[in-house]
Structure formats: structure tokens, C-alpha cells
Request: fold
Amino acid sequence: MTGADREYRRIRAERDRPGPVLRKAPGPTAWFDVRRGRTGHWAFSLNRITGIGLVFYLYLHLAVLSLLLAGPESWDGFLHLATTPIFLGLDVVLIAGLAIHGLNGLRVALIGTGLVPDRQKALFYTLMVLGAIVVVYSILHIAESA
Amino acid sequence: MSDPTPADGRTRRFRLFRYRRGDGAPRSETFDVPVGASRTVLEGLRWIKVHADPELAIRHSCFHASCGTCGVRVNGREALACVAALDATTTSVTVEPMANHPVLADLVVDMGPFVDRFTEPHPLVRPVEPAAGPAMSPEGEPHERFEDCIECGLCLSACPVAATDDTYVGPAALAYAQSLLDRGEGDRDAILDWADGPGGAWRCHAAFECTEACPSDVRPAQRIMALRRELVRPRRRR
Reply:
């Protein structure tokens, strides 16, 4: 093989090599990159964040329930912790996550079944206002019972 | 095309994505371009190619949003460069290739993988079809025409699911499949099986960025939702 052949092959191999695929953000962070996103992307990102948070909470919840195996003192100790202001604040975060994820899921279901395919933005804002009302009510209820 | 140079001699700073195979990592390069308001991004890119760097790789054809070849991201958002207007206040313009497509050179992406996502039958060239029916539906609504899709690939670039999943066939291909069902073309069961697959309609998470990005009003997200409606119908009624 001559030097020209080798150079030809090198150029061909370089030409056939796939180019880079640009991503708006690295890996799964693209889900949450809403800098240039619109309403639907915000809904998508919120659903992912709350979904991941709720999965984390599920395992945390199971871990906390396992305290029951350690006896009444262990559980009473947890209840004491659970009624501190920080924990009650986390309860509000949990309720907000549930409201956003559940109501946004309802939005996706209503759009996906074709009932309101062209009203995804209006549905998002309406359901998020409903979610905000649920969160405000929960704050008042928790504050009252604390 | 008329001269885009503004009368007041003002320039705009174009920051371009540059990449050439064999050059190593991509880089960005800036050009001060004398294009006035009411001009387009494509006019700025052409000015750069003619007056500053003839090696700049750009792709375009029709200049009026019909061919779909000049899809890029302008300041982070998907747009056809030929109709992306430069407003009076924007002094800095960042132009990058579409996301989620392999880059060939500079602002040009490889459309091969995009076209490969479409289900069969997907003719790249269709014969002209004479209007077979009335222009309006019985309900008085204008008929939707999927032929409006110019296969520019902006929807795939905008999709946040495609950003992390190359197996997702993407909005354009799914919308095309729905249009086949709508028109009663192709093998209905095969199309539904294809859309029901792991990279199909259920991978969409209703972010609607494809519909927002579409320059041709195809509304891919709504079509994906319509496709899902077909998928959940009992088989015997499909």
C-alpha cells in the first residue's frame, strides 16, 4: 500500500466517523433544563423532579416503618422527631410533590385520552392553581394541629 | 437577495458553533456581522460565508420555510434560520446545530438517522395528489394536512426525551405514523405495533416542545396523543 493509499484511507475513515451529537445539557440534566423551555417543558420537569422525590420518599417511608420492629421506644422517638417544625415543613414539601405529580398526571391522562388535546397549557395552570390551594390548606391545617 | 447591510453601519455579534472532522473538539467562533433589523439569521450566516469565512458549513435552500434544510438553534431555541428574524434590540446571536442529531460540520447535521426513524411506508418523494374531497370537513373545520411536515428535524432537537434516549423514534416519525392511520394508508396493525413498541408513543412525556418548535404547524404532540388514543382502543375496534 502506498503512502497515498494510506492517506486516502485515513481521510475516508475520518469522513465516515460519526460526528458529535449535541445535547442541550449533559445526560438527565437535560430533563430539568427549562431555561428556554415553555409550559409543557416545565410540566415535564416538575413531574420528573416530583416523581424522583416520591420514589425517594417511598423508600424513606419503608425505612421509617421498619423502626416498628425495634419496639415502642424507637417509634416514640421517631414521632417526637416527626413533630418538629423542620419535619412538618418537609410534610408540606411532600404534599406539594404529591399534588404536583398527581395533578400533572391527571393532565397527561386527559390530554392522552384525547379529551382535551389542545388545552395542555390551560390544564397545567388550572391544575397547578388547584395544587397551590391544596398546599395552602395543608399548611394551615398542619400549623393549626402543631 | 438584497444587501442585508444596515444603513447605520451597526453590527451584530454572531457566535457560531464550529466543528470540522479531524479538527479535534468543537469550538465557538464570533463574527461581527453588519445585518440590520428585519433581517434573518440565515442572511447573517450567508454574509459570514461570503465575506468572512467561506469554509463555514451551512445548509439552506428555499429561503421561505418550505424545504426544512436550515434548521438550527438560535439563542438556544430551535428555528429555521431563513425565517428567524433579527429584532432591533438583539445584538448577540448564538447559532448552534440542532441537538440530538449527529453533527457533520459546523451547523450542518446528518439527517440520515432522523429519516431512518420513520415507519414504512415513508416515501421521501411523493407524487402530487389532486384534492380528492372538499377543502373543509363536514364540521366546517379545515382538513389537517400532514404533508405540512417539512422533515426539518427541529421537533427531535427540542424534545427533552430524545435528549437522553436515542431509541425514542421521536415526534416527527410518530406524527407521520398517526397521519398514515388517519388517511387509511399502510398496514394499520403493523403501524400500531410499531408505535406500541418500547421507543414508540409511550416514551413521549407530553412536554409539547415539539409542537412549540414546529415551524409548519404539524402539532406533533397532539398527533402522538391521538396515536395513543388509537393504541388503547380494543384491537377489534381498531
